[in-house]
Design a protein that fits this description.
Strand content of chain A: over 45%
Strand content of chain B: over 45%
Number of helices of chain B: 0
Radius of gyration of chain A: 13 Å
Structural class of chain B: mainly beta
Largest sheet of chain B: 6 strands, mixed
Order of helices and strands of chain A: EEEEEEEEEEE
Oligomer: heterodimer
Chain lengths: ~120, ~120
Amino acid sequence: NAGVMQNPRHLVRRRGQEARLRCSPMKGHSHVYWYRQLPEEGLKFMVYLQKENIIDESGMPKERFSAEFPKEGPSILRIQQVVRGDSAAYFCASSPGDRRYEETQYFGPGTRLLVL
Amino acid sequence: AQSVTQLDSQVPVFEEAPVELRCNYSSSVSVYLFWYVQYPNQGLQLLLKYLSGSTLVKGINGFEAEFNKSQTSFHLRKPSVHISDTAEYFCAVSDRRGGSYIPTFGRGTSLIVHP
């Protein structure tokens, strides 16, 4: 029973390039959440998605960042024209979606993005 | 808006000593509370959660936490720590708000267990 999978685990990009981070939720989970963790800081919520829908993107920067969770395939967090400040660990979490307020989120191992 | 304060950024302790990691939250409505642990270069794992009922919650690896509504706290404790408990610990709170469930995380407490 595989957990939440994220790939790549490490990603190096030069300024101006695009970064694509993938997240496959646990089997049976229909809700996906993306978080960013900067050094010495906690997790900051970015976006909450269900299949084919963005439910809450209040934590997502207005420019350059986008997320999707298609009907088939993993959820994708896309960062266009990366800058050094985008360097961080990006975590994906999933949940079943059947008990909204109290359900546990299961986290992936994260993708560590380094922008040179 | 809800917020979570973890009062200590770093807690050094000797092996087999007791430890308490503090967490306070602010929320005007009923809350659900969580503690997660993050080992180096890994994702977060759930240690324990409080949803309702008994205010003393027992989790994995010998950890427990007590929900104190009057003090809006949810401190994490372990009576005797092990070297392997060295990790980052995050407190999180979610509440009944709007139509979605988005937990708010504290900044984390780094537990450092010395031999």
